[in-house]
Amino acid sequence: MIKLLTLFCLPALVLLQSCAVDGNAPATSGAGVANPELHALMAKRINVLISQMDALMTDQVRTETELDQARKQNAIRIADSAAELQRAAGQIMAIQPKLALDANDAPVFHALAVRLRGQGAELEALAKRNQIDALRPAMARTKDTCMSCHTMFRSR
Question: Of 81, 76, 77, which is closest to residue 119 (Cα–Cα)?
Answer without folding.
Answer: 81
